[in-house]
């Protein structure tokens, strides 16, 4: 049934007569309206009538109830349409040019549809078509047409001829012309309509269709559209919809290129009126006022071209015109889609945006981005909301939505489940918004509030005062996985280049990896994204992740190892649990390793400390790690409250694997004896009857010896003779 309706509309558009104003155009005109796919040239005058018809039709139809007096040029006005049918009404659609539609209401009991209009100045045509689809599959259509005078807007049902009659009747009624003048005006107009001839006074109303002697030739109509930022700088209106109108009929459509340029080639068969229109929409978005409209538009001046004559237009959309700001919103969305296409090999989601709206948000049910009138120049806001559209399209979040503060612990407010999903759902779009304008920074130039490391926004104080504010993505915020500010700051640290001002940030994944990781992980929470980034793109336990997570409340902190580690004194590890203020980490695992091998992983721990048993330590000492080499330790942390989150990694700490040493005994006997026991316990050296290697570390001097049993190099210090002590000591190389 829908396809039947659309087919009917396409076939019937050429029947719609649109009145062309006899007023000069300014640089271009604008409105937010539904597109008349064919702006009709009225090449068939056989259906024109000199008066409004009250003929009774014996089947379903619609009748517009019009005043004979003019409608307001300033205030909105209402026109009712009576539906003469007993069939159920399934659908209401409309097309409009030159009028804003303020509201459309259907009174079922009275079978009346009331449409409230607002006249748009400087439009070059005024027409409205109401289309009703009935349950019996009938489609009813009613057209009205407007004509502007200094007295107001005259509206009729049939054609452009009726307004002239209406105007004359109005002037006669209020004694502004005589009866004789009225008769002359009506007769003159009747003759013009009958003979199908042009006069200067009626050039805007009638078109001579006698084309028997006309020649034809190709004309190139090209140009460039630009938009103006609030700082006065002009930028190309890239990848934006444009259409060519010849004698009020749309004959071609296309999109501008990256530089805002377009070009149409058409064949003119006579001197023709030509203009180019652009709309606030592209391949990937459209910006409209609300659901009643298609998009905002702007026109070049209409120019008269001869057969084969070319024309170049170059115009920009002034920032001072509020409606033209919709084009900047569209450009921000276009840039956001370009970023997705760049790193996802296409498939950027389409976005319908309503501007201006009451608040900045994305509605996933209707798939609509809402942007306020103040936010048109805050690309961070626009792209943040488009980021929600991306999340919805690619299944990259499962946010519960609702009220949220950028710096709050959402877990404390909404609970663990909703809080972690909300924080991720809001944190990633902010990160995405910043990356877009950074990536296209050179192209975007000096557009305000973009291409920096700040999320730029605005607010109103309690007294209603407007002010702007910014949040740096380079500032650590240690509220953890339940805070969107902590999340976008951590994401940015993963992404950006090393900075001397952030000694803890030694990762730099860049645009492609950060995009691939989020697409691959399809996360509901930050920890799911982290797992993918850690395991797929950087499976190294060098502590660089932990250094960053530590700063943002997503890792254990204050991780230390005891300083007196020896063969018989195993290392003692301590740490602070870390995590969100309301939900600290409560499960840990400790790993000890070097660059090539993992030597120890603990069972799950619940206390923020652990001392290796002698057996665990001996296993490490007997490993292939060289004595005196560096060992590392790292923690994995979880919060086990449902839903369990983690693991997250801590910073890495290091310590030295002790070297083997000898225990040296001095015994007072009839002769001096020295006995050195290797730490392996299996060999004894006596009476200086071995070859020893000098040892000098600059502080201590002594002798070293290889143990014949285990091969370890141990240090022996010979002590001064004592008559009193049986002295026992141990010295190791570390």
Q: Which keywords apply here?
A:
single chain, about 725 residues, alpha+beta, Immunoglobulin-like, 6-stranded antiparallel beta sheet, 5-stranded antiparallel beta sheet, 40 strands, elongated, disordered N terminus, disordered C terminus
The CATH homologous superfamily of the largest domain is termed Immunoglobulins
Q: Please count the helical segments.
A: 13
Quickly give the structural class. alpha+beta
Shape assignment: elongated
Rg (CA only): 40 Å
Q: Would you kindly provide a written description of the structure presented here, covering whatever features stand out?
A:
The protein has 734 residues and is an alpha+beta fold. It folds into five domains: 2-202, Immunoglobulin-like (Sandwich), CATH 2.60.40; 217-280 and 296-318, Immunoglobulin-like (Sandwich), CATH 2.60.40; 404-540; 555-656, Immunoglobulins (Immunoglobulin-like); 662-730, no CATH class. The protein is built from 13 helices and 40 strands. Strands 2, 13, 14, 16, 18 and 19 form a six-stranded antiparallel beta sheet that branches. Strands 1, 5, 8, 9 and 10 form a five-stranded antiparallel beta sheet that branches. A hairpin with a 2-residue loop joins strand 13 (240-246) and strand 14 (249-255). Helix 2 (161-173) packs antiparallel against helix 3 and helix 4 crosses helix 5 (379-394). The relative contact order is 0.06. The model is unreliable at 1-58, 192-215, 664-673 and 717-734 (pLDDT under 50).
């Amino acid at each position: 049934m829908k396809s039947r309706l659309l087919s009917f509309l396409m076939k019937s558009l050429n029947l719609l007569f649109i009145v062309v104003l006899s007023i000069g155009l300014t640089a271009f005109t604008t409105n937010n309206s539904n597109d008349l796919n064919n702006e009709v040239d009225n090449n068939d005058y056989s259906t024109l009538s000199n008066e409004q018809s009250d003929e009774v039709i014996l089947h379903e139809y619609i009748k517009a109830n019009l005043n004979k007096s003019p409608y307001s040029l300033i205030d909105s006005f209402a026109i009712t349409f009576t539906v003469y049918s007993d069939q159920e009404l399934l659908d209401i659609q409309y097309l409009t040019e030159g009028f804003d539609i303020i509201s459309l209401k259907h009174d079922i009991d009275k079978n009346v549809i009331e449409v409230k209009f607002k006249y748009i100045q400087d439009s070059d045509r005024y027409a409205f078509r109401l289309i009703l689809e009935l349950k019996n599959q009938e489609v009813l259509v009613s057209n009205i047409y407007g004509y502007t005078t200094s007295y107001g807007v005259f509206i009729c049902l049939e054609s452009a001829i009726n307004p002239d009659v209406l105007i004359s009747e109005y002037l006669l009624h209020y004694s502004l012309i005589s009866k004789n003048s009225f008769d002359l005006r009506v007769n003159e107009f009747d003759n013009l309509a009958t003979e199908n001839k042009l006069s200067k006074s009626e050039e805007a109303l009638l078109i001579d269709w006698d084309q028997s002697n006309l020649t034809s030739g190709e004309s190139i109509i090209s140009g460039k559209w630009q938009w103006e930022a609030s700082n006065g700088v002009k930028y190309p209106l890239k990848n934006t919809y444009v259409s060519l109108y010849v004698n009020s009929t749309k004959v071609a459509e296309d999109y501008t290129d990256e530089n805002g340029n377009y070009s149409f080639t058409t064949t003119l068969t006579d001197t023709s009126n030509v203009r180019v229109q652009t709309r606030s929409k592209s391949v990937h978005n459209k910006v409209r006022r609300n659901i009643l409209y298609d998009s905002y538009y702007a026109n070049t001046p209409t120019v008269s071209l001869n057969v084969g004559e070319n024309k170049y237009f170059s115009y920009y959309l002034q920032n001072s015109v509020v409606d033209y700001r919709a084009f900047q919103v569209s450009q921000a969305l276009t840039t956001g889609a370009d970023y997705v296409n760049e790193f996802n090999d296409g498939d950027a989601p389409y976005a319908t945006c309503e501007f201006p709206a009451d608040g900045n948000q994305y509605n996933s049910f209707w798939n609509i981005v809402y942007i306020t009138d103040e936010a048109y120049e805050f690309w961070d806001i626009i792209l943040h909301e488009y980021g929600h559209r991306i999340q919805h399209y690619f299944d990259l979040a499962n946010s519960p939505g609702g009220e949220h503060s950028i710096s709050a612990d959402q877990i404390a407010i909404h609970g663990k489940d909703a809080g972690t999903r909300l924080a991720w759902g809001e944190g990633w779009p902010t990160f995405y918004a910043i990356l877009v304008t950074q990536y296209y920074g050179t192209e975007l130039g000096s557009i305000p509030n973009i291409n920096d490391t700040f999320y730029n926004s605005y607010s109103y104080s309690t007294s209603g005062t407007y002010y702007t504010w910014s949040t740096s993505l380079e500032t650590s915020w240690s509220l953890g996985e339940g805070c969107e500010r902590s999340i976008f700051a951590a994401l940015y640290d993963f992404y950006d280049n090393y900075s001397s001002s952030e000694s803890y940030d030694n990762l730099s994944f860049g645009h492609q990896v950060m995009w691939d990781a989020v697409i691959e992980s399809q996360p509901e929470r930050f920890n799911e994204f982290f797992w993918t980034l850690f395991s797929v793109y950087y499976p190294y336990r060098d502590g660089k992740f932990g250094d960053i997570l530590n700063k943002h409340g997503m890792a254990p902190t204050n991780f230390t190892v005891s300083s007196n580690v020896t063969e018989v004194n195993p290392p003692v590890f301590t740490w602070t649990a870390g995590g969100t203020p309301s939900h600290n980490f409560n499960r840990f695992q400790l790993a000890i390793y070097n660059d090539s091998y993992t030597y120890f992983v603990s069972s799950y721990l619940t206390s923020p400390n652990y001392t290796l048993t002698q057996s665990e330590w001996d296993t490490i000492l007997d490993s292939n790690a060289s004595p005196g080499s560096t060992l590392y330790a790292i923690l994995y942390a979880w919060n086990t409250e449902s839903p369990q989150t983690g693991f997250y990694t801590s910073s890495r700490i290091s310590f030295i694997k002790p070297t083997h040493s000898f225990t040296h005994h001095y015994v007072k006997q009839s002769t001096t004896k020295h006995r050195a026991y290797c730490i392996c316990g299996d060999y004894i050296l006596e009476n200086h009857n071995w070859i020893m290697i000098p040892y000098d570390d600059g502080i201590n001097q002594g002798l070293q010896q290889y143990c014949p049993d285990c091969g370890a190099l141990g240090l022996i210090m010979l002590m001064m003779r004592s008559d009193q002590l049986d002295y026992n000591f141990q010295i190791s190389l570390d």
